[in-house]
């Protein structure tokens, strides 16, 4: 490192800061996306029925047989 000038060192520090900032932004985006997905799931559940209640539909066997024929 004795041969490197101060400008090279400063450039390296700036680049490291840029990379850290990119990683922070990426983490924020992922967190936001995850929260948005969670909120959308809650809203859908609220529209379908009581919160925490799972709505399941059973497909009649006759309907499935007709589809396969």
Give a structural overview.
The chain has 69 residues and is mainly alpha-helical. It has a domain at 8-48. Helix content is 74%, strand content 0%. The model has no long low-confidence stretch (mean pLDDT 76).
Percent helix among the residues?
Answer: over 70%
String of helices and strands? HH
What general form does the structure show? rod-shaped
Q: Characterize the largest beta sheet: strand count, sense, and whether it forms a barrel.
A: none
Count of DSSP E strands?
0
Q: Please tell me the overall pLDDT.
A: 76
Distance, first to last CA:
75 Å
- SS class: mainly alpha
Content of β-strand? under 5%
Rg over CA atoms: 27 Å
Question: Which properties best describe this structure?
Answer:
69 residues; mainly alpha
Short description:
This protein has 69 residues and is mainly α. The protein contains two helices and no strands.
Helix/strand layout:
Blueprint: H1 6-48, H2 61-68
């Amino acid at each position: 490192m004795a041969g490197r000038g101060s400008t090279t060192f400063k450039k390296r520090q700036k680049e490291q800061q840029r990379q850290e900032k990119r990683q922070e932004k990426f983490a924020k985006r992922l967190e936001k996306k995850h929260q948005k997905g969670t909120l959308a799931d809650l809203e859908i559940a609220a529209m379908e029925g009581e919160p925490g209640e799972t709505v399941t539909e059973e497909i009649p066997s006759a309907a499935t047989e007709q589809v396969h024929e």
